[in-house]
Write a structure and sequence with these properties.
Elements lengths: L6 E3 L6 E3 L12 H7 L2 H8 L5 H14 L5 H10 L4 H12 L5 H13 L3 H14 L9
Antiparallel strand pairs: 1-2
Helix pairs in contact: 2-3, 3-5, 4-5, 4-6, 5-7, 6-7
Length: about 140
Amino acid sequence: MGERSSFQYCTWCFAEIPLDAKVCPDCGTNLDDYARHTPYADRLIHALRHPLSETRMGAIIALGKQAQPNTIGALTECAMDNRGDVIESLEILHSLAQMPACPALKQALQHLAQNHPAHAVRVKATEMAQKSAPLPTARSR
């Protein structure tokens, strides 16, 4: 069996704090108030900066299921900030695929296709960007 951790992470600053802490000794955040008064989507976006990849992955998946276009930028930034984690970046692309087509999505996919260091991510982002491109109309041909 695995060891139980003797600490938790602050939900705001991600400092290691005692399991029974109600207030973060590092940043002063009241953990219950943060959980109670911060909208779920905002907490998920904030969790994209968590030091544990498992926590980030959970937030990525949840944001994809919510499919809110206002989260596209945060997901893209997460992919670029954690470029060494190819699996995470591919999951971000999966979450982006759940988003409705919009200019922000197209821009995010183009950015990842051109700038992400992982070949697999660039290829998948390129494929997705091409699929999301509007088809030419009869007049524009």
